Amino acid sequence: MVHEQRPQASLSRSSETKDIPEPGALAELDPESWPAILAPRLAYFAAVARAEHVTRAARQLQVPQSTVSRALVRLERDLGVDLFARHGRTVSLTAAGRTFLATVERALGEVERAAESVRADADPESGKVAFGFLHTMGSETVPELIREFRADHPRVRFTLVQNYGEWMLEHLRSGELDLCLTSPVPDAPDLVARRLDEQRLRLVVPADHRLATRKRIRLAEAADEAFIMLEPGYGLRRITDDLCTEAGFRPKVAFEGEEAETLRGLVAVGLGVALLPPPARPRPGVVDLAIVGQRAVREIGVAWLEGHPDTPPVAAFKKFLLTRKGRLLA
Q: Going by DSSP bridges, is the β-strand pair 274-276/128-133 parallel, antiparallel, or unpaired?
């Protein structure tokens, strides 16, 4: 999305809603709640219900019969409902037991699927890596990285997410991402980051611009130009603001967007100039000028959450990325 820069009203969250849990937030598990009380006994209950015999169920579960019997007695006592009718050595479900069993089997099935899913994601040969990266790295850099990695790990699966740096760091912290390629390289106590490479930034101007015949330029010479920039929160926006401040001016922002190639397109039709990394492929209608007099670069690094244990596929991909230091963008 791209929009013309204009003043915006500031919105704040109502104080009346500040204590409402966010959707999906995990509630604390009360030790006296039904899940805490019942969960350890549900597998015993389901096994006896299927076998209609306590001894056979205990044998299948490979636990003492007394353990199963005690669990059933406590389960019925806690619920205040008879789940089984006893017939000598055999048992059968009551109406309440049949109702309870239907839901218990669905719950146990969900637990089984969840366990199989996390085990599959951690499998050294075919596990999954949740990998985030900048939009500008999506067309060539990341596909080439994954192609090279999968030459030795052909069955490892990836969940790929393109977004800006701060968004990815938030999702590292929440556990939704395992690793991300981002810029600037973060410096935060809860994250680990390693610098891998850098890109030289260029001042991109329209092909018919007054500066288009130049090869290089001091950024201060563009102080009066209309700038097309990424939105606040993007790493490249912060770098651009810092470089302009270092050059002695505050840029006049004409348009803000979310994707570097869209910004390049706006430059091509004469709507302003932009500080951008090299494109994956040359684009007609623009000229890239080298910046002299200051270090105009974007450092790229890989980041992950401090102290977070890696599954084998994540550890392998992290090790692979660290070997690409100095040639990530080659």
A: unpaired
